Amino acid sequence: MRSDSRAAQVVALAAEQGGVVTSRQARAVTSVSVQQLKRMVDSGVLERLHHGLYRLARMPEDVHLDERVAWLALDPDAVVWERLDQPVPTGVLSYRTAAGLHGLGDLDADVVELTAIRRIRLSLPAVVVHRGVLSREDWQLVDGLPVTTPARTIADLAAAGTDAGHLALVVRDALTRGLVTVEEVVAVLSPYAFEYGHRALDGQGFLEVLIAQAGVPATTLAVADLVRKNTTTAAGATAATAVAADAAQLGVAALMKAVTESPQARDALMRSLAALGQSTDTDTGTQATAPPARQPADRTSTTGSDQPARSARSAKTADR
What we know:
The protein contains 14 helices and 8 strands. It has helices at residues 2-16, 23-30, 34-42, 65-74, 80-84, 95-102, 150-159, 164-176, 182-189, 203-214, 218-232, 237-247, 252-261, 263-282, and strands spanning 20-22, 46-50, 53-56, 91-93, 112-116, 127-131, 139-142, 145-148.
């Protein structure tokens, strides 16, 4: 009876961790023996994935199983909920793996990549552990897994020398989906601008070239940024003033081009105009008037889009 009870506890523990459990976790939490774990494998309750790593049998297919197993293996003694309560849960999924989990770009993910705060070597096949500095602001949960944020992921990929074409698609997806702001991307790209053939610390120029490579109209991003600023600005006249000031930077022709090419941009413009209209209706003094639109200046990067990017270093380097 005691053996059955412990087996049930192992099953419950694995279920709480996405269907995966380590032998060390099972022994620490349920006091199950190695022999009992083996019997659970023989009876078809557990499936052995690797030394010390098990998965519940008859579980629905987990498309993130490899990532889940690799992350558990970083710290096989601690249970998932204890690790996720920490500012940094030993390490997090990062680089190309993080881009894939966020749905950014089309990078090949033939290995699982993680970043750990200390040197860790795993015997798991097709797993690369980078060593790096992490803070609570650098990661978030994606499908129950700790993953570097889109901004940190872009920074890691640039640091690893990811070719500009693939990096451009990652940046494009992050910006157009509103996962990062232009300012955030400029900040994380600036340290690597020179290595990609741009002026030192010229994150803005670097970003402009990437956006051109990705084929995203700058006006689309401008309208998307306008909406993000509008939603984070105080309500009422303050918000309307900020919208009007930003809208003044966009020419009428540029706005029309943006809303024609992008439904998101069209929705953004309509919400912004609605905010301006509300401000006008509530103004009991003089009627609010938006400043006249002006044609945007030519912001072609002085470096040009044909600057040679640096040769890509291997993203599989174990330690940055």
